[in-house]
Each structure stands twice: as structure tokens, then as C-alpha cells.
Fold each of these.
Amino acid sequence: ESTPPGTRFPLGSARDPDIGANSLQNYELTPNPLFSLLVRESPDGTKHPELVLEKILDREKQRNHHLILTAVDGGDPVRSGTAQIKINVTDANDNPPVFTKEIYKVRLMENLPEGSLAFQVKATDNDEGTNAEITYSFSDISSSARQLFTLDPRTGDVKVTGPLDYEENKYYEASVEGKDGGGLTAHAKVHIDIIDVNDNAPTLSLLPILNPIPEDSVPSTVVAVINVRDRDSGENGEVSCKMDGNLPFRLETSSENTYKLIIASALDRENCREFAVAVRAQDGGAPARSSTATVRVFVLDRNDNAP
């Protein structure tokens, strides 16, 4: 199909045993927009037909052409003979691969197991044979993404080969290349969004403010400050705290991620000289994750009892 217009193809000559005007006089070709007929005459008068390509061929539009060559003599009545010309257009690598999408947008849960099929890129090629065989590869990809994803050069399957972690990286971008057997290429973009999963429990850090505390400390005295944090996002990262047990303390919100442990009622060292205050932090995921930290509060004696 890459044959340039103007190329000539010699055809077999007809034979006519008659002589003079009754012998072979001319050749005719069935009308066709792609081919014409040129009759070349040698010095001895023999006529040689040649098929001439007039326009560029396109195998993808039409791979076979059927023509009829007619040889005509000059007798009366005129006699003729015909021959069929069958033309098979072979493939030239004149079509590059084409991806099914210019941009592949993918959303993956961060708990997708290693070895799972993440997505597939696909390109087509209108050529045939090896010219239509496409090999896939990453043409541009970060080192971190290369450790997490592999691309099958034959199928275009992209698989997860490492642990995805939304908290480490929530977005990846890469470019893929499809190359056919003739060396023509196509490119597409890949955008990968990692979706958060509630895979992190809240963490608590304790900062004692007053410990031990005098037993005559007034209510609302701050005993400790508790900071909470959750690495997840959205509801998975929204944390609430509560205190377990019926103790003379309560939690008070100080800021978005900070709580104060304060005295709620009078203390009496003679009744209890040490408290283990369990503070439980729970996120808003489904299912929720939680953590517990214990604040040990020691009560300092005051001379509040007469002999």
C-alpha cells in the first residue's frame, strides 16, 4: 500500500494468430479510479499492456481489487479476449497505534492487595500482522510509582506490586507508550487517585500539668492536656474522646485535637490516693478504630483532718 502513484506493473500480452487488421489492435481496462492502462508498442509492433497506479492505496479501506483486461482485434466482427487481474494490497505500517483514551483516570482503594489488577490500558492499530502488534511500556513514571505498579508489555494490564498508602501519597501520574511492530508509537496519560481507607487508629499524647495534685484543688483545675491525632482523612480522621469510668474528673475540649482533663468534683486522699483515668479516642470510620491511654493521677495529702 506504500507503492507510490505512477508505478507501472507489466501485464501479460495477448496473442492473436490473425494478421493485418484482424490481429490484436488494442487493450482496454475496466474503469477504476486507482488504476489506468498504458499500452507500450515495441519496434516490431507488438503491444505490451502496463497497469499504472494513479492514486495512493489504502489497505485499511480496500485490500483487494478486481479488474478485467480486454484485448481487442480489428476484425469485422470484432473479437476480444479477457483476463482477470486480481490485486492484493499488502500492509504497510502507515497507521500508528491509537489508545482508547487520552487520559486514563483511575481510583484505587489504598488497601488493594499486592498483585491485584488495578486497570488496563488498550491501544488499537489498523495495520495487520506485526505492524498491528502493540507493546506497552511506561514512558514517564516517578521512581515511587514504579515501585508500586507494573505494566504488562503484551496485555496492557497494570498491577499493584507494592503497598498503597493514602497517607504517604494520594496521587500518582504516569505516561504510557504503545509501540507497534513497525516502530510507530502512541502515548496516553494515567492519573491515579488513592482512596483513603480507615487503616489508622487515633494516637494520644499526654502532657501532665499538675501531678501529683493537692487533694484540696478546686474543680476545673487542669490536671493534664491530651492531644489526639489520626492520619486518615475525612470522617476516618475525625476523632472524639471520652473518659471511661465514674471518676472525679471530666474531659473538656480545648481545640480541634486537644482535650483538657480537669477536676470535676472534690478529691479526698483518705478515700483514694491514686486514680487511673482511661481516655479513649475513637475515629469516625466504619468500622471505627480506637485507642486508649491511661493518665495516672496521684493525690497529695493536705492536713484536712483533726486528730
Note: Helices lie at 143-146.
Amino acid sequence: MLEVLHYLYRHMKDAFKLILIHEMLVRYNRLLALNYIDEGSDDKLYDAHREWGKRFMKLYAQYTSWDNPKVADRPLVIGYVSPDFFTHSVSYFVEAPLTHHDYTNCKVVVYSGVVKADAKTLRFKDKVLKKGGVWRDIYGIDEKKVATLVREDKVDILVELTGHTANNKLGTMACCPAPIQVTWIGYPNTTGLPAIDYRITDSLADSPNTNQKHVEELVRLPESFLCYTPSPEAGPVCPTPAISNGFITFGSFNNLAKITPKVMQVWARILCAVPNSRLVVKCKPFCCDSIRQKFLSTLEELGLESLRVDLLPLIHLNHDHMQAYSLMDISLDTFPYAGTTTTCESLYMGVPCVTMAGSVHAHNVGVSLLTKVGLGRLVAKTEDEYVS
């Protein structure tokens, strides 16, 4: 028994650390969820991220100096770390930077944490390698060891593309393996991590007058902070269905978590104001009958008959998913967490999208996208404008 107690005592710190790491993983999900329900202009959302960041940093030792060559005019070494270099929403905004990067004046190193590579992963890897970049598969490698790899590669700027979403590498970022660290694309808020210096955005997604707080310094690109590369499997744009149907169909293919009670209230107002109109909503959870029934019941309570609503589950083939946009005439964005990939897909397939401006980044991504493609007239400032 004494031997067992000695063993437990020796490993107590490791066990405690494992508990802390598990707690941090739970907190990832909590922080992400807060974006769906909180407008975020007050301090609560910022404080939650900042507090997480302070605690998370204590789990890792930080590098405080770097031996990167101090040589003028040498190529900068820029690293990109993400688990989403596969057919994932983020990948549609990563392809253009990887393809059109300046590989002459920069050395690009990709740290891929992809769990299961697909054809898109292989295409990305092939592009990077053919242009002279480096591709490192890091799935399953401890985040501290990944930080060591980054150090050995002498990365000058490390860009993480995930934030508080699945399989992120914020543990690597917490080690400060690069002298400059950046977050971009994958998360609509501050990471809360003091180890990250900058967050890339634009002046429409994050107004210079915003009250939203970040631990990172915001770098606003002169145009949009996103560059969408459509799926080559999208297929042709179809005529608006109202021509053959004789009625207007509104729709949304956004994550169900983004369709808040307030969003459903506003959508019901729209449908009730447009005679004979219909609503089509597609998302993964609609494969579950109880969720479908709850969704329809909520709309019925808001005055919208369930017979006017079509619910579609996940569509696995990308071509079929993109062609499903032909079922709608007008795409309805969500709030306070707006769509990103869905908005771009909708526009690419010829379906206009209506969005509503807000006070924080998550709310304003649609504002940025629509304005930059000349559709600023589809941006509402209030719920009443959105409905009308």
C-alpha cells in the first residue's frame, strides 16, 4: 500500500495537469458556444476568453528568445498550423493564401494536424511542395513537440487558423515557438491567449470604432480578410426557383447552433409577411426526428405553419450540397453569429444573401463579404430592416 501511495504522490502533478488540460478542452467548447448567444459588445465574452488564456498559459513553458537568423533581406519563414487542411469550412479560405503566397521572398511551412487526409489535403500538400514550401504532418504529435519543430524550422511568423474549434493547436501557440504569432480565419473572436500577438481582420468585420476587446492587436486588411475558393464540384448556377414555383423560397444552410430563438422569430416574421413563401433549412442535426419536430414546433408557435417549411439533413456529396442552393431564391443569414462559408457558397451559386450588421466580428462577417462584392444594399441595420 505504501508503494502505491508513493507512486500516486510522484505522479500527482502529472495527474493534476491532465485534469487541467481536460478542463481547458471543456472550456474551448464553452468559449465557442458563447459566440452563438452573446452579442459580445460587453466585457463578459472578453473576460471569459482572457481568463481562459491566463490559465492555459500556465500549462506550458514559454520560449522568450529565438535564434532565427538576423540577416537583412533573407526570406521570412512563415508557418501555418491547422487541423483543417481537408474538406472543412476553413479550407475554402486557406486555399488561396497557400496557392498565391509569395514563395520567392517567403519560405512557407505548413503544420497539418489533419486527422484523416482527403483529396483536398493531398491537393494542398502538392501545391505547397511544388512551390518550394514545406509540409509537416503533425497529427498525433504532442503540442510541445510541435513547438520544438517550429523552433527548429526557425519560423518567424506562426499563423494559427483554428481558434477555439476542434483539434486546435493553441497549446503549441502557448509555447511561443515563433517571435511573432498570429490568429486568422478560423475563429470569430479573440483567442484570449497572450501568446498570440495579432489577429487578422478588416474594417467592416471589426470596425475601428468597435467596443469589442481582444488580447491580440487587430491587423485590418485593406479589403476583405477572407478570400473564398469555391469547390470545383459546385456545378452550374440554376435559375431562381421562383420562376417555376410561382412563390419565393427563403433558406439557410447554416449551423443549427446559429439559428437562435431570435433568428427564428425574425424568419417567421418574414415568411408570414410574404404570402405563399416557403423556408428551406439544411443542417446535420435534422437527421434526428426529435430535433426536426422541435424546430417545426417552435416555428408553429411563432405563427409559421410547418407545411411551409422543408428541413434537409446533411448532404454528403459536395456537388449535391452546392446544387441544393437551387432550392432557394433568397438566403437568410444568422445572428449574432453570421455565416461565412454558407454566405460565400450562396453567392457563388447565384443566391443573394440578406444579413444584419452588429457590433462584433461574429455578427459582421456577412457585412464584410456582401459589401466587398457590391451587395451592401443587402445589409440591414435593424431587425425591421432585415424583415423588410
Note: The chain has two domains: 1-196, 242-387.
Amino acid sequence: MSFILNDHQQLSLFDSLTFLSERKQKMLESSWAHQFSQEIFVNINEMLFAPLYSSSTNSRPNAPINVIVGA
């Protein structure tokens, strides 16, 4: 697998959060998941894991490291 940095900061146009009701959005913002996302997930340094992957661009891209570590 080749290493590709995950650009996780931007939401997609079809992100499921935009379709939540205002009540459910507030519930999500007050949950542990929101804190985890804001404090831990975004601070996982993926570059620390880059040497574990192939430098060849012909190989399959990696799964996002912050998703794997944060799971």
C-alpha cells in the first residue's frame, strides 16, 4: 500500500451531518463523539506512519491512519 495523507478537515457536499435535524445535530455536538473528533481525531499525526507504507505510487492507497488509530 502506498501512503496518502487523509484530508479529513472538509465535509463533503453529501455528508450525512447536513441531513440531520437541528435536535440531532445538538445531541451529536454534546456527545463524546464530537469531543473525540475535535480533540483527538484531528491531532493524529499520520506522517508518523508513512514509513510503514510503500513509496511506490503503483500500489493501492492506504486506509486513513487517523480512522484506523481512532477506531
Note: The two ends are 20 Å apart (CA to CA).
Amino acid sequence: MAVAAAAVAAALLLLLAADGTVAERLPPTCPSDIYCTGPLLHVVQMASIYHDSKTFVDMKMKYSSNETLRIFEDLMKRTEQKPSRLEVELFVNETFEPAGSEFESWTPDDWIQQPRFLENIADPDLRQWGSKLNLLWNSLGRKMKEDVRINHDRYSIIYVPHPVIVPGGRFREFYYWDSYWIIKGLILSEMFQTVKGMLTNFLSIVDMYGFIPNGGRIYYAMRSQPPLLIPMMKSYVDATHDVDFIKSNIHILEKEF
């Protein structure tokens, strides 16, 4: 079996080596000539001005996409299509705002310092650890600025009306699979209002895309994960008995599944 698997892998590598245009024939992850495809994205990412390739594609444009592309074309003409790393960095600083500028400060309104699950932890060290975990909700909450809704075409983030809890670190937006587990933790922490807001966000995204992308950025719009919205909704309804919420959205759940 291992020999056969190795043979298949070798054959695939040979096929890819023989046809270097395979990647070029794949469709872009989204139509954006800034965040998903095109020479601007290629030049900026190949310049490696950031340690993380995600940094640039999470930035907000200061100007419209047409104006941003015009400034980029001027740069390319001025440098004879060979801008230096410093020139690319100056261009990005001139035309984009730092990653994360789409959010405003937000602390969950329904956060509880001592949720009931802590009372069931007998070991004092584990109870203290659980209390510290519960504190993390306050640092992982994100709320989008109203400008994201108004000027959504200047962002890579997908606008949602309610605040979310994100995985953290470089992942500033929601992620579908992660949210399944996050919602389970929020329910344990009795943060039902936050959970309902996140579920409402997902329902609006299904209305928009017909499914929920892997994450909350337009460059994730061509990929998804297993349909977890129904299990999320079940966890919420089991905990709150908010049957009306599921009744009013059952058609969207069916559409997503």
C-alpha cells in the first residue's frame, strides 16, 4: 500500500513538473485585482516587505481600487517595471492603512467574571486556570467599524453586523471551523448574546454567498469547510431554548447544508 501511494505521489509530481501552467489555469480566489490576483498583489508579496504574507492582504485601501491601481501603474512606469523593495514599501505605506484598522475596541457586553462552570471545578489550580481562560474572551472580541459596511470595497474583510470572537494572533477575522469550538466555549461561559450575534452573522453570509467561506476575508470566498452552522445552532438552542430563532432561520440552515 505504501509503495502504491508513493508511486501515485511521484506520478503527480511528474505531471505538475511537466505542466507548469496548472496553477496559472486555476481561477483567482476572488475578483479583486488588489487582494486576490493581478500584478499589484504579485509585486508587493514578492518584495517580502512583511514577514507574514497575510499582513498586506489584510490592509485597507486608502483610496478606491481604481486610484490605487493608477498609483501602482505610475510606480511601475517610473521604475521601468522593477521597483526596489524600499519603493514597494513606500507605495504600500502611501496607499494602504495598517492591518487591523477595520476594527474598533469592543468588550463583550455579556461577559461574566464567574460563570457557573467554574463552581464545578474542585481543583483550585484548575479553577484558576479556567478563570484565566474565561478572561480571554475580552481580548479576542472584534467589532467592525461602520466604515467597513460603507466602504466594503476598500477592505478584504467580509462585513458582518455583529461582533465576533476570533482565534487571535494573525487571525483577525472569524474562521468557520474555529467558530464551532469558540461557540461551545462561549455557551459554557454563558455568553449567549455574543453567540446569537455570531450565528446571525453566519446566516447573513449564507444569504450573501450561499455558503460560509473558510474565513471572513474575500480571499477565502472560493473555499469552505464542513457545514457546521446547524451544529452551532443546535448548541445555542439546547442552551437557551430560543426555538423562535431557529424557526425563523430554518430555510437558511437548509440552504447552507
Note: The first strand starts at residue 60 and ends at 61.
